[in-house]
Design a protein that fits this description.
- The strands form 7 sheets. This protein has a 4-stranded antiparallel sheet, with no helix packed on it. It has a 4-stranded antiparallel sheet with strand order 16-15-18-19, with no helix packed on it. It has a 3-stranded antiparallel sheet with strand order 4-5-6.
- Helix 13 packs across helix 18 (440-453).
- It has 609 residues and is an alpha+beta fold.
- It is 26% helix and 14% strand.
- The chain has 3 domains: 47-74 and 279-458, Cytochrome c-like domain (Cytochrome Bc1 Complex, Chain D, domain 2), CATH 1.10.760.10; 86-268, Cytochrome c-like domain (Cytochrome Bc1 Complex, Chain D, domain 2); 496-606, Macroglobulin (MG2) domain (Immunoglobulin-like, Sandwich).
Length: 609
């Protein structure tokens, strides 16, 4: 029964990610603004008129100037020219998690594009074949050359990969009229596919260090033929492909075109572009905090981020110009790798030059899209920075950051000697030559915007977990995914806090969850009268932000934002109301807490007052 519920939950979540999802704040029940026919069926609701603050006016003017609408997700099916096929997408989901399609028999798409991290990499530099069948912080094996890009929102990208080697020549991933360009041996031969993602799906199974391994003989075409042989020899896959392709049901073989469109259809369900900034752009001024709004104004103005992390035109509001630049990223070299690095010391990554052969393209990498940064464990093409703060600081002064860089925050096998940095600095993009100065407050506002203002809650791991199948059609073991689990303290070590701050024994042995940095105590369920009290037990004093979300991932209430907390237990009260002052509904909620030393979350049941 549990497995049946899991499957039902996965189907419901998959459907909710597409045409049936209503993207609205839980606090409003005001007039409805409906997207015109042909959009993806998403309904947006407009907040009632409010007094407009100066920062609201400023940000609204900035967004209008850059043409940012906050509606790009609603255009998905209109641009696709049809509804998303959920049955085909679910077939793609099963393939995504099945090692059958990796000829080395130990990796698949999900090994490097994991729901634990927004369908991105769990590593600074990817680990492909010869791994330990674990996906998460404890994944081990020989490294590739770069980290795996995030698959969420990739349906809207005009080119793919860190060196843009897969590209729609029309600069539109939905348009194959000018062709889809790939390196040899494919060239333009995949241009018949309906979407760039369907063409790109042909490549990962052929990558030796990612999935195919170095034993099977033959070229890309031979590898794909063997993948098809495996699929066609598996009755469960023939049945499932037959449900979406009548010719297979009639006895025809599964083709790689079918494989590609199935994978792409699943990725089309992974468009999560309804962050607080999007809701603000659609008229919901309360969707963002003041700090996030000020950070957004800095992003589009003084900090200069939008010069490369563009939102207009072909960028599809994805916060990337999808061009390549040299931004002086420190060069990381794994201790054990199955890739060939560049340069005389085999300690460099030449980036775009590997594709074009032009020395002028050396060290160039595509501008990374910025949505859902909060779920990523590392940043840059080689994951050299492990916090958003570090990545932002690098952009503000690339010369100081690159020369002072030490890899001591990386995994042990990535802490060796760095590749040369001065040749990289000699080619730095002119936009980054002059350092940018921000005050401490401005820096925190910018990071707040990038981390939370661009986060769609659907990308959080707790909302993607049900997409991991219990079983795959091949019957093979599904990889082990390291979703962060609540760590429970012993009954004698747990504490709750009363209104006067005195520590007491918890009322329930199921009342606490711990992050790596602090513990959160919440009632489960809460008393059906009076306020709800949480205890935040910190190892060190410092600012704390705490937010309540409902079961769908929508933010309900800001409980604290940068509030100074003492070391040890601190009391935090919720009066049962949302940010608009209305009573919150009875149901399941989550409190998420962030401090300078880490983040944590706790689920609880709210019974009302």
């Amino acid at each position: 029964m549990y497995r049946s519920l899991r499957r039902s939950a996965a189907i419901r979540l998959l459907a909710s990610m597409t045409v049936a999802l209503r993207l609205m704040l839980a606090v409003d029940s005001s007039a409805t603004e409906t997207i015109p026919a042909g959009a993806s069926g998403v309904e947006f609701r407009s907040a009632p008129p409010l007094a407009v603050s100066a920062i609201d006016r400023q940000l609204a003017d900035v967004l209008r100037r850059f043409g940012f609408t906050g509606r790009v997700e609603s255009t998905l099916e209109q641009r696709l020219g049809r509804r998303i096929d959920l049955k085909l997408a679910d077939l793609g989901r099963l393939i995504w998690f099945d090692t059958l399609v990796g000829l080395n028999n130990d990796n698949t798409c999900a090994g490097c594009h994991s729901p634990t991290n927004g369908f991105g990499d769990t590593q600074s530099i990817a680990i492909g074949i010869d791994n330990n069948a674990v996906v998460g912080p404890h994944r081990s094996g020989p490294r590739n050359q770069r980290r795996s890009p995030v698959a969420i929102n990739a349906a809207l990208y005009p080119n793919l990969m860190w060196n843009s080697r897969f590209a729609s020549l029309s600069n539109d991933p939905f348009d194959n009229s000018a062709g889809f360009a790939f390196p040899p041996p494919e060239g333009l031969t995949l241009s018949r596919l309906p979407h760039l993602l369907a063409a790109q799906a042909f490549i990962p199974p052929t990558e030796r260090n990612e999935a195919a391994g170095f034993v099977f003989p033959g070229d890309n075409f031979a590898i794909r033929a063997e993948v098809l042989r495996r699929l066609n020899a598996t009755p469960s896959y023939r049945m499932k492909f037959g449900q979406s392709f009548p010719e297979v049901k009639a006895g025809a073989p599964i083709t790689f075109d079918m494989f590609g469109v199935a994978i792409a259809e699943f990725e089309l369900t992974l468009v999560f572009a309804d962050a607080p900034l999007d809701r603000f752009a659609r008229g919901r001024s309360r969707a963002m905090t003041t700090s996030q709004k000020k950070g957004a104004v800095l992003f589009f103005g003084k900090a200069g981020c939008v010069n490369c992390h563009a939102v207009s035109g072909a960028s599809n509001e994805m916060f990337s110009d999808f061009e390549t630049h040299v931004i002086s990223v420190p060069q990381i070299v794994p201790a054990v790798t199955n890739s060939v690095f560049d340069g005389p010391g085999a300690s460099e990554d030449f980036g775009l030059e590997q594709v074009t052969g032009r020395e002028t393209d050396r060290y160039k990498f595509r501008t990374s899209p910025l949505r859902n940064l909060a779920v990523m464990p590392a940043f840059m093409h080689n994951g050299c920075f492990t916090t958003i703060d570090e990545a932002v600081q690098h952009h503000l002064d690339v010369f100081a950051s690159a020369r002072d860089y030490r890899p001591d925050r990386l995994d042990t096998d990535l802490q060796g000697a760095l590749g040369p940095i001065e040749p990289v600095l000699e080619r730095v993009d002119p936009l980054l030559i002059t350092p940018i100065t921000l005050s401490n407050i401005e820096f925190r506002q910018l990071v707040d915007f990038l981390r939370d203002g661009l986060l769609d809650p659907r990308a959080l791991p707790e909302n993607l977990r049900s997409l991991v199948p219990d079983r795959v059609p091949s019957g093979r073991q599904v990889l082990t995914f390291e979703f962060e689990e609540p760590r429970r303290a012993s009954a004698t070590s747990r504490r709750e806090v009363t209104t006067d701050g005195e520590a007491l024994a918890p009322s329930s042995p199921d009342a606490t969850v711990a992050s790596s940095a602090f513990r959160i105590y919440a009632p489960r369920p809460n008393p059906a009268s009076g306020p709800v009290w949480f205890a935040i037990d910190l190892p060190h004093a410092g600012p704390v932000s705490a937010f309540l979300f409902d079961a769908t991932g929508r933010r309900v209430r800001t409980l604290a934002e940068g509030r100074p907390f003492e070391a040890g237990p601190n009391a935090l009260e919720w009066d049962g109301r949302n940010d608009a002052g209305a009573r919150a509904a009875v149901g399941i909620y989550f409190i998420r807490v962030r401090s300078e030393t880490g983040e944590g979350a706790q689920r609880f049941v709210y019974l009302g007052h």
